[in-house]
Amino acid sequence: MVQLLWKNGSANQTLITLLENCKSMSEFKKIQAFFITSGLSQHHPFASRLLYFSAVSSWGDMDHSYRIFLQIPSPTIYNWNSIIRGFSRGKNPNPSVSVFVKMLRFGVWPDHLTYPFVAKAVARISELQLGLAVHCRVAKEGLWLDRFIANSLIHMYGSCGEIGSARKVFDEMPMRNSVSWNSMLDGYAKCGDLDSARQVFESMPERDVVSWSSMIDGCVKGGEYGVALAIFGRMRVVGPKANEVTMVSVLCACAHLGTLEQGREMHQYMVDKALPFTLALRTSLVDMYAKCGAIEEAIAVFREVPTDQTDVLMWNAIIGGLATHGQVRDSLELFKEMEVQGLGVAPDEITYLCLLSACAHGGLINEAWHFFKSLERSKGMAPKSEHYACMVDVLSRAGRLEEAYDFIAQMPIKPTPSMLGALLNGCMNHRRFDLAERVGRKLIELEPDHDGRYIGLSNVYAGVKLWDDARTMREAMERRGVKKLPGFSFVEVLGTLHRFIAHDKTHQESDQIYMVLNTIVRQMVVDVDFETQKHGFYDIQL
User: What span, in angstroms and rounded, lies between the C-alpha atoms of 304 and 316?
Assistant: First the structure.
């Protein structure tokens, strides 16, 4: 290797070549070991190269990178930027800010590359005060006109929810590029201001795949799933080819709306456009098919992925999907498969939530307790309010209402509306109206502006024929100004989604719909009469 190193008389170029071909941390450490034993690691250019590749590579290890950094006698701004950048991209971006402060204390002056890395770290931890301090230093040093820095500040403010400051930076930029527009659009979308996001989107001189993806993702996160699909339809006609980020958002929209035909169409789009079927995309497909009622198609997509290439998100999607479809035993068997195959995939909090949901659907109390206690014993995990709510649901569905009530009373956290709602449903199903009244009143205390809480308690009183109390609840709801939101349903016909509420006459084809509906109802009556005669069920008068 020494001969190779000096073969062309360029040790630096040889090091770069070795590092560029490096595929893992173990390979990197072998290269580093050679340079340590040869004494080359003491030379600043080599140490800087080692630090850079360790800090910014996808296979890098920031703890190891920081140890390399500490061994450099007099770090240059290039070295400081490398370590700050590495931490800003890692699982924990907080050290990026700490290293930046340490750099200032050492008297090293930041350059135009330092601030974007620090701003990225601040954006990820969403610390507005830190962001303001960074912006203040940028202004003092006269770097605010730098487009690279200004773009990072827009992104930082948008991520921190300070969209007004992001807009101010955007408006003061003398020259904007596509990153500037995309950062502003993404900021509005993250803050839920979809009207302003649309204005920016329509005003953009050019829209790339990031622009379209940000707009679609913003609509999905804002609950405007139909709008998201409409924008994607427009993108297919006049925009660029979608990427993984776009399709994950689009599939999420289909999943929420339950539009199976559109979901299948999106799946075919990915095939036709030869998009790489990444793990994230396959997981989104599994989730979409499961939520749209096509559990067999969800299983088929799941089984297409080699088990050694799966992750916990994909397992959660299929385990949760099976549970939702009532295939409880299959759901639990799949969890066992995940454990016994030695895949290195450890269950997380969502996995246990899916398992508890499966137990609730299947009435499996003992299994539910087993999973709940396993979560309590798990290292680095603890039951959250959702897990407690699921456990209450398990007990309530099974009629173990007193046990559920005691479980809530003994919890280390305060009861949430979802927990009490699960208990109330159990009380109603098992006709424990005395306990239902107590729970219903507590729910109104917790959510006095929620229409369902008043209606729930009113139904409790109606269940025991306390009509005056039931009417009082409705009146209390009206006095408080709480209005009942109408429930609605979606029906997908030939890929088009139709929305209906009870007694709806707004649909353009209402006359035909009600004509068919009345025909079906009449046929149901005829069928019932026929079955009655067939089995000899007669109303005989004596």
Answer: 16
